[in-house]
Amino acid sequence: MKVCIAYESKYGNGKKVVDHLENTLKGKGHEVQVCLARETKPNAMPQADLYIFHSPTHAGSPVGKVKKLLKKMEIPHQDAKYALTITSIDPEPRTLAKMEALVQPKGMTKVTDGMHVRVTGMKGPLEDGWEEKVEAFASELEK
Description:
This protein has a single domain, classed as Rossmann fold, CATH 3.40.50.360. It is about 30% helix and about 25% strand. It is globular, with a radius of gyration of 14 Å. About 35% of the residues are buried. α3 links the parallel β5 and β6. The protein is an alpha/beta fold.
């Protein structure tokens, strides 16, 4: 499967999550391309079977660069699938739902309910067991 992960990370926590997800998916034999949301042109999304969008949470929402990408992106084909991930200090953030509302009109198929990795302080570190959570999420993507 060809996977594109577009993400943002403010303090490096999201990058850790995305890097571990990338390595896990590559270890399962998938082709993975990772790009920063701020450097991704919405009208020139890479060709992929699965798109994963990751954002840190800022004031209960995805960060601006991710919001902009999700609002304006044009997906190259109709059979595309997607998944969403976030990092957040909030134990029950609404960010995934807000991201979902931006992606739904694009006509892509959702493959999971998303993943939330908690950040234990404003700048980290990530919650205990976050690596296992990412690995379980990667397995969900293959179903």
